[in-house]
Amino acid sequence: MVYISNRPIGEPLTIQQVSPGLHVLSNAKLDSPWPKAKRLGKRFKQVLNKYGKNEVLVKEMVEKLMKDKVKADKGKLPGICALDWEFNHSSIFVEMDTPRWGYMQGLCGTRSSAALMIGVGGEVSFCDKYLDEGV
Fold it and tell me: Which Pfam families does UniProt cross-reference here (predicted)?
C-alpha cells in the first residue's frame, strides 16, 4: 500500500510505502503524533486486544471509536494555529459552532469517518460513514 499527500500546503508531494501495522490518519500526515491520532491508535489497539484472534468488524470499529468527543489537553496540542481553534478540533469526532465575520457560520466538524482493514491473507474491509445530517 502507498500513502500520497499534498499536505501541508507549500511542501513537496509525499509518496511513501506503508509498512504493515496500525496507522492513523487525521488532518496531518500519516502517523503524525497529534493527540487525537494517538488517542485513536491507542483505543484501536485496545479493541483489537479485546477481540484477540476473532474478526473485528470494520463497521463496528468506526461506530465505536470514531465518535469520541474528548478533547486533548491544551498543553499537548501541536501549536500550528490558534490555541482555541486547535483545542476545539482536538477530539476524534469534531463538532462545534464557528463564528465568521461577527455571525455564526454554523456547525463545523467531522463529515465522515472511514476505516480500512487489510487482513494477513490480503482480505480488505472498508467502511465509510458519511454524516449527512447536522455536521
Answer: TANGO2
Asked if residue 54 belongs to a domain, the reply is yes
CA of 54: how far to CAs of 1, 24, 41, 80, 93, in Å? 24, 22, 19, 40, 27
Distance CA 28, CA 105 (A): 24
- Is the pLDDT assigned to residue 38 strictly greater than 90? yes
Q: Is the dihedral of CA 8, 76, 39, 129 positive or negative?
A: negative
Q: Per-residue pLDDT tens for 40-70?
A: 999 988 888 888 777 777 877 788 888 899 9
Domain that holds residue 90: 24-130
Has residue 94 been placed in a domain?
A: yes
